[in-house]
Amino acid sequence: MLRMTHSISRTAAAALLATLTLAAGIPGVAGQSLDALPAGAVYGDYAVGAATGFAVDNHQRFDPWNGAYGRPEYRALLRQVEAAGQTRTVVFHLWYPATPDTARGRLAGPRSPFPAASGRRANYFDFFFREGGPLSRRIGGGAQVVMPQFVRLPDGGVLSAADDETRSAVHADIGRRILDMPRGAWQDARPAEGRFPLILLAHGLAGNHGMWSSLGEFLASHGYVVAAPTFISDGGLPLVFHDPDSPFAKQASAEELERAYALLLGEVRVVPYFYRLLFGREGRGFAPPPGFDPPAERIVPGGVTRATTMMRNLFRQRVADLGLLLRTVRLLGADTETCRAALAARGATSAARDLCGLLAGRVDSERVGVAGHSLGSMTAQLAANHLPGVAAAMSLNNAPPFTWTPEEMFGAGETRDGGDTLPTGSRKPLLIMIGDEDDFVQRVFVGLFQSAVAAAGGDPAEAFPLAPERAAPDRAENPQPVALSAWRRATADRVLVIVRDTDHFTVAEDFARLFPWPAFRRGELPFGPSPERTRKPTGAAAFGPPKAEPGERYTQLGWAEIGEAGEVYLPHAVRDWYAKAWFDWHLGDDGESRERLRNPDPFGAMTSVRRRIR
Asked: 582 falls in which pLDDT band (50, 70, 90)?
């Protein structure tokens, strides 16, 4: 992406911030409407409680994946952290059903929960421990904590990452305003009576537990305990040293702690590692690195195999972290003394043990589901097969290629789909939801592992040996060949939902619901992506160089006015409806939800659905 450098004063930044107040009362996007909001997309009758904690495992090193693949300075930090006695620590967030105050009504219509009868209303800063120490500048100045897009200026330019004064002026003000926004959850809320199924949510590359706010609240309002980690290996904000009993934080000076966080938060380098292993040098995005010359470039001998092994090891670490979180939340559902003793035996610190008692008797650990987005989507499919007791998975915008799958997570064997014999994939019920305009996944699997590898003298079949994974993408029938291949290889109940006119992030990111898209389109908000997009290339064009002229334009699915429901962010409504139906069926044995999934899709032309339900 071309970045233009701009200079802007604090006064101008304040003027930009004032435009945030214009986001309410925006009319819907033309052509994106329903007569009524489907019942399954309405929030449930529970209020939502929230808490953040730490899962600790003294049987694992602090960060073994980056210990093998990280930069020298990061590996030096790991040696220092581990010498202090710090073991694997996973920050996680909980949403849970809480006792509602129904007399006050819903917070803002059917697409919001009830207020809780106790506790304090949470804001986005509560995801991050309301930091007041050396990391405060990074959080307060990092609007991308909850909005990963670059800040955009009215002339279309993008703030330079190197323009520290500009970032300080704009990001700090906008970021703090976003982080102070109230959520639909309540800190320290009293849990509702009952035992509730558990759902784990896995973020994508450079994500964090805060990205799941809307889905976590929605599922908790319908009677689920929901837990989301931030993965150390590739997460965007793993605040592991905020644990007050962190061995490293206790021994480090303020300067050492800040430097450790600077390295930790800057080590989300999976993409550069691809290039280093494939081409012997680093790139910055899922496109050939600057100066890439196909006739001169060559694949490093064994590079594809090493890149594949790297991804398998990353997924092993991610699934292990989900397993650690699963064990921790199961213990939180035990009585207080049992919980504290068991967590202490695994090395958990006081901050982890302080949550004991919160959910005592509330977690039905025999009913577990897992969901994820992007890299987390792949993680969810693998975890469902590998972790004990997981009954079903839901994946947003991705699936693991056959070669990236650790053998122990899918196993051997073959399955038949139509006239094809394919390797066995997911053995657990699997729902995959993808966007038909997901150019990010296309750049990864087509632009990098097929086009760039082939241009550098490699064989794409070495990376993707399955012919269905190497198929040319087609917008209507096969927008993501790897995802379709994974869906076809699934051996249990399976549903594939293609959401029209959505990209890689639309159904998952929470930032999009904070500010209705028409405000962007009218130019009233000077940051964030425009809903006006260029369609991705498909067919043979997907494998060729970018066209000089932009392709067909379209308006991304966004906000719409829907009857009594008012303004609704449609991508989340679609996601939530399917998430509830899928997990109600597989975790709650709800026959009505099963029938809803078998019936015509309630979102009409917005989606295309394929299903194989026994």
From this structure: very high
Supply the pLDDT for residue 560. 86
The whole-number average pLDDT for the span 86-109 is: 94
Instruction: Tell me the two tokens of residue 515.
Output: 């500010």
Take residue 399 and report the two structure tokens written for it. 């699936």
545 CB-contact burial (10 Å; exposed 0-12 / middle 13-18 / buried 19+): exposed
What is the phi/psi pair of residue 610, to 5°? -120, 145
Nearest to 554 by CA among 2, 23, 30: 30
pTM of the model: 0.89
- What is the SS3 assignment for 444? helix
Q: What Rg, from alpha-carbon coordinates, does the chain have? A: 23
- The structure tokens listed for 386 are 């590998």
Report the candidate in 148, 93, 91, 101 with the shortest Cα–Cα distance to residue 126.
93
DSSP string covering 339-381: HHHHHHHTT--HHHHTTTTTTTTTEEEEEEEEEEETHHHHHHH
Structure confidence at residue 492 as a pLDDT band (50, 70, 90): very high
Question: Residue 508: what are its φ and ψ, rounded to 5°?
Answer: -105, -40
Task: Give the pLDDT band of residue 29 (cuts 50, 70, 90).
Answer: very low
Cβ proximity of 322 and 202 under 8 Å: yes
The SS3 assignment for 203 reads coil
Give the Cβ contact number of residue 217 at 10 Å. Answer: 25
Cβ contact 562:572 at 8 Å:
no
For residue 518, the model assigns a pLDDT of: 54
- Determine how many CB atoms are found less than 10 A away from the CB of residue 582: 26
- Above 80 in pLDDT, residue 282? no
> What would the pLDDT profile of 555-580 be if each residue is shown by its tens digit?
889 888 898 888 888 999 999 999 99
Check if the beta carbon of residue 452 is closer than 8 Å to that of residue 283.
no
Instruction: Count H helices and E strands in the chain, helices first.
Output: 22, 17
Report d(CA 578, CA 194) in Å as an integer: 24
Tokens standing for residue 331: 């213990």
Task: Give burial (CB, 10 Å; 0-12/13-18/19+) of 337.
Answer: exposed
Length of the chain: 614
CA-nearest of 360, 359, 324 to 343 is 324
**Residue 185 CB burial class (10 angstroms; 0-12, 13-18, ≥19):** buried
Cβ-in-10-Å burial (0-12, 13-18, 19+) of 296 comes to exposed
Which range among 3-17, 20-34, 240-254, 370-384 has the greatest average pLDDT?
A: 370-384
The residue behind tokens 């390797």 is: 423
